[in-house]
Amino acid sequence: MTTQNAPIIISPVNIESRKNLDIRAGDTVRVYQKIKEKDKTRLQVFEGLVLARKHGSEAGATFTVRKVASGVGVERIFPLYSPMIDKIEIMRRSKVRRSKLYFIREKVSREIKRQMRKMKLMGHSTDSTSSPQATDAEEETPETSETTETKEVVVEENPSVNSGQEKEENPSTNSVQGKKEE
User: How far is CA 87 from CA 39, 43, 155, 172, in A?
Assistant: First the structure.
């Protein structure tokens, strides 16, 4: 009677390989997760920055991954030993001085706000460059600019009417009648 020292597999996940992976905060990882839809199973890839790893290497260990998709920050918490995770690839390692990088959430929003301010400033500069061209065109034909201004005033006074020309042609038109027509 010989006994074999084969390891007993309790979990479908190779626990030792996941332990040795040594995922840390600051790593950029690519997680391949199995998604079951009806009869089919497919792999969904989630690539991002590891913000935190919790509970060490015990059975309930988790890690949080953050990515920015279409300008929106998306975070997912993955169990380290989940059988639904096919594989985990470490794309890049970064040296960070914190074990939890939660401050990245605010940092990204601050940078976005800065970019929006820059875009707003650029928008003003673009408008100022286009307005001198418009003033040159107005100097050539001053009559056109006056009629345009009149139409704008009429439209602002009565927003329920579709165009300013109708208001000028029919001064007796009531705003209640305009609503019934629409």
Answer: 21, 10, 62, 75
Query: DSSP 3-state assignment of 56?
Result: coil
Which run of H or of E encompasses 41?
strand 40-54
Query: Rounded to two decimals, what is the model's pTM?
Result: 0.55
CB 148 within 8 A of CB 134: no
- Cβ contacts of 70-78, under 8 Å, gap ≥ 24: 71/112, 73/105, 73/108, 73/109, 74/48, 75/51, 76/31, 76/46, 78/31, 78/33
pLDDT tens, 76-113?
999 988 888 888 899 988 888 888 888 888 887 777 77
Q: Which residue has the tokens 């007993």?
A: 8
Q: Note the pLDDT tens digit of each residue in 11-67.
A: 677 777 877 788 888 888 999 999 998 899 999 999 999 999 998 888 888 999 999
Using CA of residue 151, residue 152, residue 156, residue 162, what is the dihedral sign?
A: positive
* The two three-digit tokens of residue 133, written as one number: 């061209």
Nearest one of 53, 58, 38, 55 to 88, comparing CA atoms: 53
